[in-house]
Design goal:
The complex is a heterodimer of chains A (355) and B (126). Chain A is α/β, with parallel strands linked by helices. Chain A has a single domain, classed as Rossmann fold (3-Layer(aba) Sandwich). In chain A, a hairpin with a 2-residue loop joins strand 9 and strand 10. Chain A is globular, with a radius of gyration of 22 Å. The N and C termini of chain A lie far apart (59 Å). By secondary structure, chain B is an all-alpha fold. Chain B has two domains: 59 residues; 34 residues. The N terminus of chain B is likely disordered. Classes of the chains: A alpha/beta (355), B mainly alpha (126).
């Protein structure tokens, strides 16, 4: 192709994309919330902020042990079911897993008193009982994401007798003193935590969102520039809108839970030290003897690699695997890279432990 | 023509990525100091003190006028939401029970829990 033709072709492409940007920009502005979490499911238990879903199996034969995904308390679980074709739940169902999910709704003012122990010693055990009833199987496997992983670890450490058989921890911080800027900002010298909890009751979602956004202040603007550049690309826009919705739907937290997490985990690092007490039981990670897989992201800015890394050294399991992948806190779970890098490795590990 | 590709979309994306990285690094340097953490928390504490005293004063005023405060309205709204959720659960349960009794044969059959992992491709795993 001559240089002139090449230039003409580039010009045509540029004009075409500019026109499409104009036309699709209007659609983009007018579009409502992106459709997310579309895999068919039933809510089998709900209690205030707590929701337990059962995703409808798509095959006639499933693995014996059901899998419960425990979502982080700050965000909605549809990250695992972001859109058809990019849904980890859909992928797992297709492989024959029986998938449940513990998800969260925004807590209301009367739930302000829910503490960390309510999550680990009441919500999780109750959901496990509900899954046992629903599936008719005694054993369960758990996959916890971020703070959902922390809750799962505390549950596992305080219930070593079972019925939990295998645990996958995705980007789960255990050494809170390695949590970088989060740790610095939550410095006990400067933070009036008790006043915050007493005054607000429920920690607003904006507080959580702002903390996340402050870690990467340019991310939002850069995202908007990228979507403007790619407005002609329907797949990109669809995916961007779904992830944007997930970010926008960050959840508020019960004040007492926030106080427990900040004091016990962040300030005193009690989970890391094996000193965390939950309803009189010590949540010593050494009590965990079941097979465990820890999945970490190299470029995680929310749960930095350094804070997730020590997990395998703290547990008592013999069967333990570490998987360190390229990517960040969210791209590890959903999106094209997660589909290629994380999903097959985790499902391979779980398959042989789910029979 | 070595620089022909400079105006391509890929370059724009790279430019944005570079800007984002630099801006984040620069901001994190500023925000990663104890001075910043102290100021941020002081501002937050001040905001909360103001919010607390304002809402206390407002609640007192409303109470003297025999009117509900924000907390009263929130509490009432939460109770209504709970009633609404309970009704919705009862409605769902009734629908399900009606559907089950109308078409017992159509009830979802539980899958067998007998699946085994497929044998792994040795070559692929190696």
């Amino acid at each position: 192709m001559s240089e002139q033709n090449q230039l003409a072709s580039q010009m045509r492409e540029l004009v075409d994309k500019t026109l499409q940007r104009g036309a699709k920009g209007i659609d983009y502005i007018q579009a409502g919330s992106a459709p997310v979490g579309l895999t068919p499911k039933e809510t089998i238990y709900d209690r205030g902020t707590l929701q337990l879903y059962h995703y409808l199996p798509v095959s006639d034969e499933v693995y014996r042990i059901p899998l419960i995904i425990v979502m982080a308390t700050t965000n909605k679980g549809f990250l695992f079911d972001i859109m058809p074709g990019q849904s980890m739940v859909e992928y797992l169902l297709g492989l024959g897993f029986d998938v449940y999910m513990i998800d969260w709704d925004p807590p209301v003012m009367r739930e302000r008193g829910l503490g960390l122990a309510d999550y680990t010693q009441d919500f999780l055990p109750t959901c496990i009982e509900k899954v046992q009833e629903d599936s008719g199987v005694e054993d369960v496997n758990i996959m916890g994401y971020c703070q959902g992983g922390v809750l799962s670890l505390i549950y596992a450490a305080t219930h070593p007798e079972g019925p939990l058989k295998n645990l996958v921890c995705l980007t789960t911080p255990v050494d809170s003193h390695k949590m970088g800027l989060f740790r610095l900002w939550a410095n006990e010298e400067f933070m009036d935590l008790d006043n915050m909890v007493e005054t607000l009751g429920i920690i607003p979602a904006e507080f959580i969102t702002n903390s996340f956004e402050m870690l990467r202040p340019a991310q939002k603007v850069a995202g908007q520039l990228r979507v403007w550049d790619q407005l002609w690309n329907d797949d990109f826009v669809k995916s961007y809108r779904a992830f944007q919705r997930w970010g926008d739907e960050t959840l508020p937290l019960p004040g007492e839970y926030h106080r427990d997490c900040t004091k016990e985990l962040m300030w005193d690092n009690k989970l890391f030290k094996g000193e965390l007490l939950q309803n009189g039981k010590v949540a010593d990670l050494k009590n965990i003897k079941i097979p465990l897989m820890a999945v970490m992201a190299e470029h995680d800015h929310i749960a930095p690699y350094e804070s997730t890394k020590p997990l395998l050294g703290l547990i008592g399991s013999k069967d333990k695997n570490e998987l360190v992948l390229k990517g960040g806190h969210v791209s590890l779970i959903a999106g094209p890279n997660a589909m290629k890098r994380m999903w097959p490795r985790v499902s391979d590990w779980l398959e042989e432990r789910s029979v | 023509m070595a620089d022909d590709k400079k105006n391509s979309p890929a370059d724009f994306s790279e430019l944005v990525t570079q800007w984002e990285r630099n801006f984040n690094e620069f901001s994190n340097q500023i925000m990663g100091t104890p001075e910043f953490a102290k100021s941020m928390n002081q501002f937050q504490n001040m905001q909360m003190e103001y919010q607390k005293s304002f809402s206390d004063a407002m609640a007192q005023q409303l109470s003297s006028l025999n009117m509900p405060s924000r907390d009263d309205v929130v509490s009432m709204s939460e109770q209504l939401t709970q009633i609404d959720l309970r009704l919705s659960r009862i409605e769902k349960a009734l629908d399900k029970s009606n559907a089950d009794s109308a078409k017992p044969a159509a009830k979802r059959k539980a899958p067998a829990r007998t699946r085994k992992p497929a044998p792994k491709d040795k070559a692929k795993g190696a």
